[in-house]
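Quick one, T. Sequence first:
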Amino acid sequence: MNGIEEIHLPPRNQHKTIPVPVDHLISVKHNRWSKRFKIWIGVCAVIGIATFLTAVLIPILLINGKSAISTTSTKTSVTSTTNTTTTLVEGGQRHIKNLKVGDKIWSINDHNFELVEDEIVLMMHNEPNQKEWSNTGSMNYARDGHTSSVLLNGKVLVCGGNNEVSTLKSAELYDPSTGTWTTTSNMNNARSGHTASVLTNGQVLVTGGYNDRALDSAELYDPLTEIWTNTGKMNNARASHTSTVLKNGRVLVTGGSNGNVLDSAEVYDRLTRIWTTTRNMTIAREEHTASVLINGKVLIAGGAHNYHISSAEFYDPITETWTITGTMNDERYAHTATVLTDGKVLVSSGGPNSAELYDPSTEHWVFTGNMSDARFIHTASLLTNGKVLVIGGYIAGVYLDSVELYDPSTRKWSTISSMSSKRWVHAASVLMNGKVLVTGGINNSSHLNSAELYEPY
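Structure tokens:
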């Protein structure tokens, strides 16, 4: 591997390899020694060797600028590895590539006498971690209030939005393999504040939005032909609504505003291309969130209707009914909601800097740590490692470039390196390679056409 030295530790009864970036110093601390030793001479030999390594070899290696290990019992060797995870002392699993300074991990080491439990502490690294953010090609048009959809071929479709001049009907494609943008055919209607949903057949359904007024139109983009086709009108014009692909392939559209905040909901059938109304929500709301739960139901949370809303309800596609569920602890609108790998739903900010978890099995909400920054109209992306990346947004007249990570295994937030640009009303998509593409938005002075990539390490 480039710039990676791999350190071999023998946990339990098999070998595990832990790759560590070059120029890291690792200190291995032992929580307890084996209670009995079969060969006292062997112990003395091990201690003697460790003392020699600590006193003589490590200083030499450090002077030469190489990685070293300070240990009293753990053997090390350089070897190759594939994906490996390790257990954190505080609980949960972490990929060895994601270990950071101060992390503590467990291993069981066989010293040819008995199994011994060690606590390994990453004490220091002399070089910063690899850069998490990098710029990629700029879009052809600056835009905010647009949508970003990952197609089945891995490319990303960005469409609509606003710039300093007008509402846009333009669309463009990002190719992750080249980092470049190409224009594709325009939508039939300019729009911003709309939704875009990738259907099971790979086409993209765009609904509603604003263009001087709320729109009731909907259209389909076919990636094979790169053509947009009108696909019937919704029963209600709406913007700031939600659009959710159900497990049966249909699309549920809820709430929003057309001058009045709406409680209506309707369903699109991609086979017939027909919109049908379904039962109304219990509360009218806009700027809310919609999340498909593991059981197929749709959780609607928060939003606004002359006031900020803390209530939540879920929709059952089988019975086409709405049921009130537990209320959030904080009122929220223009927040984010992310379905975690364990089926719980994480909502973040859209009010105070708090975050909450919804458990579908209990229908209860619990706080799960505070973010460093409160924020509105930000993005939240579920990474392939199960963490949630929260990006940008706006709060109290301040545009944000700050970025935070939520770790479900510890239920803690951590601040990571910031984006190169402040942005809100932007879009973010998780690419098939695990990177996150962030596009457009507004900063302090203008609409942005820039894009950048986040790569988890």
